[in-house]
User: Fold this.
Amino acid sequence: MIRAIIFDCDGTLIDTRDKIVPFYNHVFGVLGLPLIDETDRAVVDLCQGLADQEVFKVLLPSESRAAVFDYIDSLDPADLLAAIDTEPYALETLDELRSDYPLAIATNRAGDMEHIMRHFALDERVGVVVTAADVVRGKPDPGMLLLAAERLGVPPEDTLYVGDTDVDREAAAAAGMDFLLYARRCDGDDGAEPGDGTSDVIGDLREIRGRLILRAG
Assistant:
């Protein structure tokens, strides 16, 4: 029985999936580094799923990484967040669920999470936040999810993780947690649930409550 829910952040609670690679390319361009090919699906998936330090290990020579982190640290978080919004119904879903479930966020983001939590009023809705800065390895390693469950005081097997990437799915499986993959419906979809309601895919965060009822039944 699910007693707590942990959410990923990017692409799940805040709408950044199409902004991560352009942001990296902005940084790389300023520093004169090779740009990411936005048509390379494997590289795009890597950028959207892994922590910055893991992405840069793959894409950048070691001597360039410190300059990239220094430049990112020099940016004003308010400027970066101005162009970002929450995922549809994210705040409403958190408000609905928090009366019955302790909530957490486990994200491969690191230093800017405090700004994100405050900017989007997530800090008013979520009690536990675990970032890449809190663990030795980010997702897909399960340590982040296990730490979040520990801080919630709920065993992993009684915890649901909601994320938007295969990296999230792998982390949940390794942690022994139930999982829902959030794959937001495109505009114009008819609103029908993906599959028959028994898969682990949802197209709307408001479906979480119904999936919990199905799993409990």
In short: Residues 187-198 have pLDDT under 50 and may be disordered.
